[in-house]
Amino acid sequence: MVEPDERSWAEAIGAYESGRRIIKVTRREHEDWALDVHTLMRGDTPDARGWAVLDSYDAEDEFDRLDDPFYPFTLLPDDTEKAAELRLRLREIPRSSAKRFLVVLTTLGLNFARDPDFEERRPGLEEQVDVILSRFPEGSRFYVNTGPEDAAMDYYQQVPGCCPLTDYDWELGMILVSETEVGMVWAFLPL
Q: So what's the pLDDT on residue 61?
């Protein structure tokens, strides 16, 4: 697996530019990765390597962020109790499922079935997702906020319910954890 560079990373996260999305990576500062998610949720979190981030809530006209730098997140794992609650809302999936899940996060309505060009765009999206995953080497772990179905499910067939970390009714997200970095790829459907 080849590690991405700054340019390939920026191009890869560009696949998520439509809609409400947050993609960022921070350094691991805690043994418990869930405590590092708190840093990711903050609107002004810079990338661990100084690379591009995507945060559609960081726009100048996003007044909710001015009042609350963690908006739209409501479950903030800033202590061990809340970190434990976060882990209860997430479940681990294998890298093969992580790839398909990340592709689904690029689609219209967070549902490949609603995206009329999905099959045509799928190979290119999978290449973009491979770049994102390459930043997290073998041995990394992947956690999603979907329902409790089989961890190896095929997300191209269905996406089960979600366990929200915000006030949105439907959001899908993944936390990516390596020995040195923690990343977030999160997508929200408008209310």
A: 59
What DSSP line would sit under the chain, residue for residue? -PPP-HHHHHHHHGGG-SSEEEEEEEE--SSSHHHHHHHHHSTTPPPTTS---EETT-STT-HHHHH-TTTTB-----SHHHHHHHHHH-EEE-HHHHHHHHHHTTSGGG-GGG-TTHHHHHHHHHHHHHHHHHTS-TT-EEEE-B-SS-TT--TTT----B--SBS-SSEEEEEEE-SSEEEEEEEE---
At 167-184, the pLDDT tens digits run 888 899 999 999 999 999
CA distance 14 to 72: 21
Residues 172 and 10 sit within 8 Å (Cβ to Cβ): no
Q: What is the pLDDT of residue 117?
A: 84
Does the pLDDT of residue 151 top 80, yes or no? no
How far is 98 from 92, CA to CA, in rounded Å? 9
Residue with tokens 């700054």: 6
Which tens digit of pLDDT belongs to each residue from 84-113? 999 999 999 999 999 999 999 988 777 777
Are the C-beta atoms of residues 167 and 74 closer than 8 Å to each other?
yes
pLDDT value at residue 75: 93
